[in-house]
Amino acid sequence: MKKILVFLLPVFAAIGLIVFNACKNAPATGTNAADNAGLTIPAGFTATAIAEHLGSPRHMVITPQNDLYVHLAGPKNGKGILVLHLDGNKASLKTSFATFGGTGIAIKNGYLYASDNTEVYRYKLNDQNQVINPDQPEKIVTGLLSRRMHEPKAICLDNDGNIYVNVGAYSNICSDFDPNKTGCPIIDSAAGIWQFKVDKPNQTYGDGVHYAWGLRNVVGLDWNQQDNQLFVMQHGRDALHDLFPNLYTVHQSAELPAECMFAIKKGDNAGWPYVYYDWMQNKNMLGPEYGGDGKKGADPKYINPVAAYPGHYAPDGLLFYTGNQFPEKYKNGAFIAFHGSWNRAPEPQAGYCVVFQPFKDGKPDGKWEVFADGFAGPVKTPNGAAHRPCGLAQGPDGSLYVSDDQGGTIYKITYNK
Amino acid sequence: MAALFWFALLAATAVHAQVKKTVHHSSLKATMARGKVVYNSICLACHMADGNGVPTMNPPIVKTEYVLGDKTRLIKIVLNGFKEDVQINGQSFSNNMTPHKDLTDRQIADVLTFVRKSFGNKAGPVSALEVKKVRASNI
């Protein structure tokens, strides 16, 4: 039997030492999927589940010292951030801290940044990238809107001392706030990306820059070092057929609108709630709430995506691959973790995979491909899926890590040279 | 064959207003069939074909107190929608439910009866009269 499954040895939380031990416990099917922790991946790659049952691990970041910081959606045993030390195909829990759960986590220039649904905090790191004072983070952003829907605040940093924070729209398509279609009133403080300083305490909306507009909900975002530019993945709107059965078939409503990748410049407006992108017509469309009919294009003042993906896949993680381990075609391309759909019913659900988007010279170049699949297992529904991809991280040796916030697994994917 | 079946159900729903007076004599089987049509067209997109909903977003309607318990509260949820921050079976859910006042008393009774007797649920039926009373006192 091949080495695959990993299980949790007895936990002594007080000691703070949990060992996730790789062990021989795989079903003896001998299939490629079983040999890769249940995942289907391209030939030459190996996937291993290095940790399981962590709760709901969302975004992750890995230090040069092979420590993986992972943010849990909600605290487990009172701790919202876990630190796992990586050693080959093993992961051992070094410590845990933070009273708050959340999604966003990042490291830059000696600080760890992490967000909950309304705040962004930072922790000073020592020269080994360990948190010096885990009980006293510095609050750098406060008072962001969080109104039940699209609450997580994903974060990302540039090279000039700024942090970018998503504030999702607390609505599908603003109908509840704009009944007379005179203009959506919530977009001044939600449905966008805000830029704040990394080192200024207690910043609120007024202290930040409303960097990008008209983004319904962004969870996956990353800074592209080639372009020195922010890239984001938008979760597109729901319910085209349910709300406009005369304009959209059930099938169109499952496939549309596209989940979009945008390359963002300051001041860009992606058009929510007035606009959606049709990946089959390759066109920015005027939304049906605002006079669209499935054929009328959008006002050209709204930006177009640089790449588009099928509807409702739910992109929750974006990572530009800068490592040297994977074959050359992956270098500087984008990996996207698709959490998987719910708004495709009654058609079959889809997504639940990690996609690779080839890039050339800092722009998408060529068709995307499914890189890792099989997370859901036999039941591909939001409730029945065994695992759902969420966060992505790159290890110092160029391995790719994928978090699963449904089953609590962290996968490591390596290329066998 | 299947298409014919669906057409028949849809037709039955479309004409139910004209036959309202006799419908309450109909069998539970017929009620369930009509309720399923309403469920599939209005509810399934969020609560899913198996009633299990979507974790953290759309609540399950399988064996929850909200479905099996007080019928007045349940009818009000359909009429008024739902956007309260509550825990259902230990989890909270972020998506708001839209109001469905546009459904008739009979449609709401049918779909709630269907939901209370499907997905492993075993609770009593909801009548159109009960819906009518709640709607009349609904603010």
Report on the structure:
The complex is a heterodimer of chains A (417) and B (139). Helix content of chain A is 3%, strand content 37%. By secondary structure, chain A is mainly β. Chain A has one domain: 6 Propeller (Neuraminidase), CATH 2.120.10. In chain A, strands 1-2-7-6-5-4 form a 6-stranded antiparallel beta sheet, with no helix packed on it. A 4-stranded antiparallel beta sheet of chain A has the order 3-30-29-28, with no helix packed on it. In chain A, strand 9 and strand 10 form a beta hairpin. Chain A is globular, with a radius of gyration of 21 Å. The two termini of chain A are 22 Å apart. Chain B is mainly alpha-helical and 139 residues long. Chain B has a single domain, classed as Cytochrome Bc1 Complex, Chain D, domain 2 (Orthogonal Bundle), CATH 1.10.760. Helix content of chain B is 53%, strand content 3%. Chain B contains 7 helices and 2 strands. A two-stranded antiparallel sheet of chain B has the order 1-2. Chain B is globular. At the A-B interface, loops of A face helix 3 of B.
Rounded to the nearest angstrom, the distance between the terminal CA atoms of chain A is 22 Å
Give the count of structural domains of chain A: 1
- Rounded to the nearest angstrom, the radius of gyration of chain B is 15 Å
How many β-strand runs of chain B? 2
CATH architectural group of chain A: 6 Propeller
Which residues of chain A sit in consecutive blocks of at least 5 with pLDDT less than 50?
A: 1-33
Summarize the structure.
The complex is a heterodimer of chains A (417) and B (139). With 417 residues, chain A is mostly beta strands. In chain A, 3% of the residues lie in helices and 37% in strands.
